[in-house]
Write a structure and sequence with these properties.
The complex is a heterodimer.
Chain A (H helix, E strand, L loop, with lengths): L1 E2 L2 H22 L1 H12 L1 H19 L3 E8 L4 E10 H5 L1 H4 L18 E4 L5 E4 L16 H28 L2 H4 L5 H4 L2 H21 L14 H37 L1 H16 L2 H18 L7 H36 L2 H8 L4 H37 L11 H8 L11 H28 L9
Antiparallel strand pairs in A: 1-2, 2-3, 4-5
Chain B lengths: L1 H28 L3 H9 L6 H11 L15 H4 L2 H6 L16 H36 L4 H14 L3 H15 L15 H31 L2 H8 L4 H24 L8 H7 L4 H10 L3 H29 L7
Helix pairs in contact in B: 1-14, 2-3, 6-7, 6-9, 7-9, 8-9, 9-11, 11-14, 12-13, 13-14
Chain lengths: 457, 325
Amino acid sequence: MFTFLLTDIFFYMIVISIILYVNYVRKTPDIRETWSYVFRNKTGIISSVVLFFFISTALLDSIHFKEKLYDTEADKYVYTSEIKSLLDIILLPIHKNSEKSYSSPFSSHLYSKETVKFTNNKDKRIYPDLLYKGNHNKYSDDNAYNIFITGSISIIKILVLSFFIYIIIFRREIFKNNSFLDPLIRNKVFFTSLFSMSLITILLYDLGSQYYILGTDKVGEDVLYKSIKSIRTGILIGTLTTIVMLPFAIFLGIFAGYIGGIVDDFIQYIYTTLNSIPSVLLIASAILMLQVYMANNPLEFENIYERADLRLFFLCMILGLTSWTGLCRLLRGESMKLREVEYVQASQTFGLNKFSIIIRHIVPNIMHIVIITVVLDFSALVLAEAVLSYVNIGVDPTTYSWGNMINAARLEMSREPVVWWSLFSAFLFMFVLVLFANLFSDVVRDAFDPRANKNYE
Amino acid sequence: MIKYIFKRIIYAIPILIGVNLLTFTLFFVVNSPDEVARLHLGNKRVTQEQITSWNEERGYNNPLFYNSSESGLNSFKETIFYEKSFKLFLFDFGMSDSGRDIKYDIKERMWPSLAIALPSLLVGLFINITFALFFVFFRSTKVDYLGVIFCVALMSISSLFYIIGGQYLISKLLHLVPISGYEHGYESIKFLILPVVISVIYGIGSGTRWYRSLFLEEIEKDYVRTAKSKGLSESAVLFNHVFKNALIPILTGVVVILPLLFLGSLIVESFFGIPGLGSYTIDAIQSQDFAIVRAMVFLGTILYILGLVLTDISYTLVDPRVRLK
């Protein structure tokens, strides 16, 4: 049975609106020209392919359902209270079982020694073997050789797959004559990056089902799985927040700039006030109050999933409410400029009403600022999540997130030998996502910003 | 000029009132004082008497806006709004929920914050501008391209990584400086070096890129072309003309954050155990001491507005074309 968490629904809406926007871009020649600059640029292509993989993972992780189980006592089918996502099903070989405690990456035994009773009743301090992964090699007992064989088989898999995809799909006539897709298909960089990302995915999957690639954490959970699950939280914080912020910024910005007068004064007052409060403090205050509310009304939430989900949603709301002011100010300035432009003046003279002018002339001409801001904000928000979770005002402690992983791993650095893999994986995944988001936003800004210095890039 | 400053202060009042109302709504209307008290006392098996006495000790027992049991002016004075929010205007921060004088704590703790924030700002400024000038000098070459990539990579790393990594490498492996702690006087230097270095490194990515774009914007202007056609060398143009003019936006960008330096950095201070205002705020957030958080919000707002006024004034000082009215 499918269940829809609140953030799921919003995430679907975001994906649908992206698809609608792509469709709109295809039909509008000048915006298509601008976007095609992004996809002609090497950095642009590579980063969008990487981001596509991240967003697909988040999307797979956003399709939730409850499993149907046969209850033998009641003699009927019941739904489990546990909510699973499609990604959980796909990654089942990776996270099916968990060990007892820490183990280092690719290790075959636990991190710490334990006393084990042997058959001749002699106690010995040894590193106990891992129960589920690490010493169940598929192809050879020699680890290096086994990894090599597994890797080679993954490469063969992906080669065969891409060959068939190429033959079956991309050689078709529809793609050859499609002006939007054709340049992409002929692009070598696009294929190379798509190929490498698929290879990495398959490699992680194949190796991940035989080894703990990134080790296990304190309760023996696979760190790779945790890091992958955290992608959804990161992406949601980056995208949902902007969705919350956009209506405020766009409506208020345009009203203030285009209508002016007392409306302008009032809107300016609101955003100056909000802007004056240091944002961390504002976020902290709002989250603290949310915590008090949740602690006092525990009955309103059906289960921990919904509770955690609601907190994530509220975090996005609060981040959105505190971050719309910057964009609003930019849009106000731009609409003030546009108000005086000849074609807007002309439509006013023709008697077009204000609403139609805003929709027809103002909105399309400020969209470039909106797009630049949205992509620029994304990476900052992903990084902010980690910091907020570290201060305990981020997502719920039960949610998988890089911030929570870092927070939990704080004390592990002082262990001897050091437990570095949890921190390392959280930082690595976050770094990759943020790096490519930054690179992507750079290219987008160059494409959309009329003032961008294209000579120097 | 004095008239302008006076005007700006008048403008600041409605903003402060707005901030005050907002925090008041957040802290007292969204959740009633009773609910906050219940949270502090541990939620389960809390009697109404305990809650009432907890509130009485901290002065949360009055009505929110209007006290009908008092007469005259006192019916407004004996309220939570007057006691807890209005008094902030008189810089009377009151007692924290754990019973300490907030004003005294703030006065004590702002200096360690400043001791980290000011050196970080100055050293960071110097390094960022140097890098930016270097990249601009080699613009449109491989050096500049690699530099930008390097900056983007630095920007993409979480601030927590710099701190945890730096502490591990410098303090734990190399034993160069203590991991965390603080002492007053000159002894504090050994505790301050690492946080300052880490703050500077963290800022290099975004700072260098920002200054680079400022310089590039300046280099497009007509006077640069004129200077070049006069036969001046590339470096003379860059350092004498472009650098000086680009200093205006750089300077004003710095001035606006100067007052906020007192607030310190939340993360850096709490990791390094510096008893500044940043760690004060974090501790307050973690122990849910709302009185401190309220005071810090108000203080932060005042400092921000102060920064804006200072920015305007610094414009008139460095750019003769700007006159304040």
